[in-house]
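Subject: sequence -> structure tokens, single chain

Hey, anyone have a minute? Need the predicted structure for the following. Not urgent.
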Amino acid sequence: MPPWVWGLLLLGPVGAFALNGGLPQPPADVDRSTPAATAAGFLDAAHARDAGRAPHYLDLSRMPPEQQAEEGLRLARRLVVVMDRTLWLDFARIGKEPAGPGERARREVLGQVATARGPQDIVLERVDAEGGPVWVFSADTVGAIDTLFQEHGSPLLEMLPPVFFTRPLWVLEAWQWLGLGLVLVAAWALGRLGEAVTLRVGARAAGLTKSGWDDELLAAGRGSIRYVLAGVLAAAGARLLKLPPPAQGAVDLGARSVIIVAAALFLLRFLTRAARFVEAKVAQSPEGTDVARVRGLRTQLAILRRVVEVAVVLVAASLLLLQFEAVRNVGVSLLASAGIAGLAIGLAAQKSLSTLLAGIQLSITQPMRIGDTVIIENEWGWVEEITLTYVVVKVWDLRRLVIPITQFLEKPFQNWSKVSPDILGTAELYVDFRTDVAGVRAELKRILEQESEGLWDGKAQGLQVTDLSERTMKLRALVSCSDAGKAWDLRCLVREKLVAWLQAQPHGLPLLRAEATPLPFPEEKAAGPALLPARVGNNARVEPQR
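Reply:
Had a minute. Here:
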């Protein structure tokens, strides 16, 4: 090495060989003693566009001194944009000592930035300065700033006034908050527009088909498509802003959550509309006259729809929770103790699981269906609602009887419309032995044909003597109706009309007969109770109270 070079080295880093010789003396608040202090100080100064501090954190020794002040601020602005968009610093891992062991004694790699030619290291280097060794961004990193900015920056950012580059909240500067707000508004507007276009085009396409499923699909998508499109557009638009990794991750998390919820709501709406569509199709078909088949299909659809709805909600909730790292860690830790926990949960939820399985079994075997007439717990009513855990029976007096679904599988109950709602009803009367049974039978027929008001279905009717006692004769009137409700009303009508007819007959209603036996007068007997003398005509008929 020539002697003059050694002389310059002995004189120290002055002139062109001094660190950033073209810059004035660094302010007192510029701390470059450790890698962590340099990284934090540079981010603060560069975000504030502080021309007095930001260039001092860069190694500008490869450019002429007269350009270092102007170029230093420009490169600092560009570097902070690149770092905000591509590199998130973990200060817990950045050195906090003036010099570290080994390679870290003079070099600290903050991270890598992806480029078209490969990853570029962002390096802090410990160099000699007038006041002693300091940490600055290395000359190689400074030389690559323009190339990195071309790939990860935008010339528009250099045209904005400095007020847009302050960091008012979280990790985003003012221009990034403004851009994110515009992206969200644009995504919502485009989502609504996209939904309207999709529904209109879909409606025209559906009009060309005879199937009604496409109409139900479009109706279920109304209100959900906009959220899906808005979520996709928001996530894509945020990437155009090249937000810092935490901010981009938060936007992606929100967009995914909105899409998951919108998709779940779409599926729930479609399931509801599909069940109604199938019921309407069956009701309009020739098989719609089969009431039992319609009720069975309605019951199956109601229970299976609830099962699928529960599955959709569980899957959607799982997808939402699995987005969070804390939930995933909890899930992994729970799997480690799955043996004991699974056994405990299985024992605790045994009754709940059996109830759930009972609901599924009921939908398949169908011992009852929605609309069936049943008698359970000594109550008569109609099955109004069937869920996975209980059944609601609407009692005749408008009370609701809520019964666990397992009771219908474990205990007997009466189902008056299991096969068909047609039913036979009886009306029993107690009459005198001298009642004209044939006349009562004729009167019953007249009542059914002329005064039943449509309650009698015309299939069956009859009158029989079903029992005798020492005082009365028991008649049973048999009538048929299309359902249990009409049977009750017709039985009451038959009783009322037949009693009115019997009251008009001389020997219609039962009589209580008593007979007195002639006995001697009391003075003719030596002992015994005194009795009235028997007279002619003592036989009497005593009518019971009506």
